[in-house]
Design brief:
CATH topology of the largest domain: paralog of FGE (formylglycine-generating enzyme)
Strand order of the largest sheet: 9-15-14-11-12
Structural class: alpha+beta
CATH architecture of the largest domain: Alpha-Beta Complex
Strand content: 25-35%
CATH class of the largest domain: Alpha Beta
Helix content: 10-25%
């Protein structure tokens, strides 16, 4: 057979085979498309819904699961695993009592299983109730804690941190003797950490320390160094014995007696001197403290020694408060006279003749501009003078009884001087944390406009006449 004929026959057979393959492919595609049109897709069961009851903290939660697909069976797990039709079957609402993750899935014959629904549940105890409320209290202070949620353990911290189950366990009342912030929470195994509670307590030692100043004489006024003319002339003064507080009145002590703290900048810090106090506030404090400790009040106003009869301390001028009378024979607390203050600051002696209370180096005995960082400091943190009295130079200016008169020293009595009979300003002594050295000398005299005016550097300490 000729070669060309053989070639033609092969080409015809190849064309026939290609046509057959093409027809078969078209038939396959057509069949697939028709099957998709004529065969319906398998429906999917609706995703179940999980409902959790709203309960009080720590109460069991009631779980209800529902599926809108009729006849579907619901299966669930409580360990976070994926549910199958071999998992626990849901038949009725149930309760759970601990933290967990619930997952649910619905199944029905001839239908695709639903998508998985889940809920994460947390259990938490109610906030711990700490009693008494935050505030300033006398030492020792007993504090109790309780939680409304049953079956929990309370943990607390007093170091400024938030408590954990590794913190102190509360087993009964605790006693505080110093400023403390208590933070507490309640916890149970398999529960989340409970809500935090905290209370801030200022705890004040009410055993006020006083120093007996012996009777004696001293040279009053600027005995050395630079200063102002109203510190002159130096003159000799004789004083009877008296008691004076070892420290300025602190914010904690003031709030315990007065029920409020006027220092809005520093809030109530039990160990810092009270400041922003007017002279009128100071005399009210004296009588209240005298009554509180069973002494005879010294000051009388409007015919009464009971500050409850005086009304509110005036914030504006009220000349009627200038009529306050001092009973020098009463044994209650009072502001020191200017002479008593300087005598105590000098250590009840003429020698050594220190510039400041207890030293010629102010940084050793007083807080002032150069070392305070412009901050009021805790009392008693630097050295005392020879009588063991603290903070008479710097930290806080201190009110005295006397009216201020620049020329008073030229006419002052030598025996127990009590200042002029009247005036416009009351005397302040000692300087404060943001003043220069010259203001903190034992002889430096200062004053403040009107007794009713407060000042952020003004505080006080009190004294009592000795028997």
């Amino acid at each position: 057979m000729p070669l060309c004929k053989i070639r033609r026959d092969l080409m015809k057979k190849a064309q026939i085979i290609s046509t057959i393959i093409l027809l078969l492919s078209m038939l396959f595609c057509l069949t697939s498309c028709m099957k998709g049109i004529t065969s319906p897709s398998i429906p999917r069961v609706e995703r179940p819904a999980i409902y959790v009851s709203i309960e009080e903290d720590g109460e069991p939660k009631r779980i209800t699961i529902f599926c809108e697909t009729g006849g579907a069976s619901i299966y669930y797990t409580l360990d976070g695993s994926e549910p199958t039709n071999k998992s626990t079957k849901y038949t009725e609402p149930f309760e759970v009592h601990k933290d967990l993750t619930i997952k649910a899935k619905a199944f029905k014959k001839d239908m695709k299983a639903s998508d998985t629904e889940y809920r994460v549940l947390y259990f938490q105890a109610a906030a711990v109730i700490i009693d008494p409320p935050a505030g300033m209290y006398a030492s020792p202070l007993t504090v109790t804690m309780e939680c409304p949620t049953e079956g929990v353990q309370i943990y607390y911290a007093t170091d400024g941190n938030w408590p954990t189950p590794e913190s102190n366990r509360y087993d009964g009342p605790i006693v505080l003797n110093s400023n403390t912030i208590i933070r507490a929470m309640a916890y149970r195994v398999d529960w989340s950490i409970g809500k935090y509670s905290d209370q801030r307590y200022g705890v004040v030692n009410t055993n006020f320390e006083t120093v007996l100043i012996p009777a004696g004489s001293f040279n009053m006024g600027r005995t050395k160094g630079d200063g102002w003319t109203h510190e002159l002339p130096v003159h000799n003064v004789s004083l009877n014995s008296f008691y004076i507080d070892k420290y300025p009145i602190t914010q904690g002590e003031y709030q315990l007696i007065m029920g409020t703290d006027p220092d809005f900048d520093y809030m109530a810090d039990a160990k810092k001197p009270v400041n922003d106090v007017s002279w009128n506030h100071a005399i009210k404090y004296c009588n209240l403290r005298s009554i509180n400790e069973g002494y005879t009040p010294v000051y009388s106003l409007f015919g009464s020694t009971n500050p409850a009869d005086w009304g509110d301390v005036p914030e504006l001028g009220d000349v009627s408060w200038d009529s306050v009378v001092c009973d020098w024979n009463a044994n209650g607390y009072r502001l020191p006279t200017e002479a008593e203050w300087e005598y105590a600051a000098r250590g009840a002696q003429n020698y050594p003749d220190y510039l400041y209370s207890g030293s010629d180096a102010l940084q050793n005995v007083g807080w002032y501009f150069n070392n305070s960082e412009n901050l009021l400091q805790d009392v008693g943190t630097l050295s005392p003078n020879s009588l063991d009295i603290y903070d008479m130079s710097g930290n806080i200016r201190e009110w005295c009884w006397d009216w201020f008169d620049e020329a008073y020293y030229a006419n002052s009595p030598s025996d127990n001087p009590k200042g002029p009979d009247s005036g416009e300003y009351r005397v302040l002594r000692g300087g404060y944390w943001n003043e220069r050295k010259i203001h903190c000398r034992v002889s430096a005299r200062s004053y403040h406009p009107y007794p009713f005016v407060t000042g952020f550097g003004n505080g006080f300490r009190v004294c009592r006449t000795a028997p």
